[in-house]
Amino acid sequence: MPHDQSLFLQPASAGDYRELARRRLPRQFFDYLDGGAYGEATMRANSDNLRSVLLRQRVMRDVSRIDLRTEVLGQQLAMPVVLGPVGLAGMFARRGEVQAASAAQGAGIPFCESTVSICSIEEVRAVSAPFWYQLYVMRDRGYVRELLQRAHAAGCPVLLLTVDLAVVGARYRDVRNGVTAIKSIKGRLARAWDFASHPSWLADVALGGKPLVFGNLREVLPHAQSLTEFRSWIDAQFDPSVTWDDLGWLRDNWPGKIVAKGILDADDARIAADIGLDGVVVSNHGGRQLDGVPSAISALPAVVEAVGDRIEVLVDGGIRSGLDVVKALALGARACLLGRAWAYALAARGGAGVSHVLDILHKEMEVAMALTACPDVHSITRGALASVSGWRSQHDSGDGKHEERRAQCGSIKAMSS
Ligand SMILES: Cc1cc2nc3c(=O)[nH]c(=O)nc-3n(C[C@H](O)[C@H](O)[C@H](O)COP(=O)(O)O)c2cc1C
């Protein structure tokens, strides 16, 4: 960490908030937040591949006015950033989803409420303007319909349908922490000690943040409040038989925009566009599902190429700075979702932390846009990049237009990974 040699009196980046979250959260919650699936190679690739995208510095242009405003899925945003769905955020800080939604509103961007949130749709709506809602397609369609009605009644304009959770990838950290199943007395004591040795979290969340239940699932999961119960419910409820054909049912039950979250393949993106969805989020669930799939940023160009002129393409995975956002926009994304970046900040400092990290990202974007001579979001194109190296996207794999794009980009040094 860069602050190893500093006084570290205040956080300067999303990465600093990760360190603060590590100190504040019980180990089992930090690992749930920080970890990925299996060997975590895809999770690491999300960030590593973003680092290997280089911005093209341009100088001596008039960059006295930088405008980050943009329109995403029919909404005006202060910057092309969305707080993506993070389940159990209310375990990171007292009534965490409420705090995060208020921070998002203050920053002029959407908050997306996860189905598996601690605070219910109605609790969040009581303090916030309409937000986005994230849904899993569950076996109990009657309950899904009820959730959709509640989200619609709260005025949610956008539904993110998470499509990459037909089955659940193993997260070794959760297994090691006994989150998936813990029965022994020794295990229970170890977890109790984990809570007891984090007194500020204990006071803020475990005691002050009650009720710690799944606010949207109270009727079906009235007593569940631990990661273990959450996992067993997921295993039982998520429906691996769902196909694109089921989306007709969803369309009939949701009047707003529908966006498929968890697309990595251009062919899947084409199907999403063909059946009339409004957008896709290029995502590997932050490396928390299938390890060994491409990083989100490397999958992005092919999806943009396939459907970018028909539907909106958003991306998430490894976004930790405004520079990352500018890189994703240059590769064709309409906006970026944040996952861990906002959740670390929430865990460290509640809503104030989320507001701060959004402010940091805003300022980082301004600098990146000024020094790539992109005064507004629409001017961020491939021309803002100097090179992309270390991974080869499907987009750059010899479809005839490659050389043309190479020229546009300056030099895209796509090396085989
Ligand atoms: C702790 C945690 C919980 C998450 N819960 C959900 C969820 O409930 N629904 C969902 O669609 N995605 C969920 N995600 C995935 C995020 O929406 C997002 O795709 C991912 O975090 C992006 O990667 P990043 O964290 O590297 O930015 C979760 C991610 C994390 C880290």
Heteromolecules bound: flavin mononucleotide
Question: If helices are DSSP runs of H or I spanning 4 or more residues, what is the number of helices?
Answer: 16
Number of domains: 1
- H/E order of the elements? HHHEEEEHEHEHEHHHHHEHEHEHEHEH
**Assigned CATH architecture:** Alpha-Beta Barrel
CATH class: Alpha Beta
Which percent range fits the helix content? 40-55%
Strand order of the biggest β-sheet? 4-11-10-9-8-7-6-5
Principal-axis shape = globular
Main beta-sheet annotation: 8 strands, parallel
CATH topology: TIM Barrel
Q: Count of DSSP E strands?
A: 12
Nearest-integer average pLDDT: 90
Q: Would you identify the regions where 5 or more consecutive residues have pLDDT less than 50? A: 397-417
Distance between the termini: 26 Å
Please describe what this structure looks like:
There is one protein chain. This protein is α/β, with parallel strands linked by helices. The protein contains 16 helices and twelve strands. The strands form three sheets. An eight-stranded parallel β-sheet has the order 4-11-10-9-8-7-6-5. It has a two-stranded antiparallel sheet with strand order 1-12. The chain is globular, with a radius of gyration of 21 Å. The two termini are 26 Å apart. It binds flavin mononucleotide (FMN). Flavin mononucleotide (FMN) binds at residues 32-33, 46, 84-87, 114, 116, 134, 162, 261, 283, 285-286, 288, 316-319, 338-341, 343.
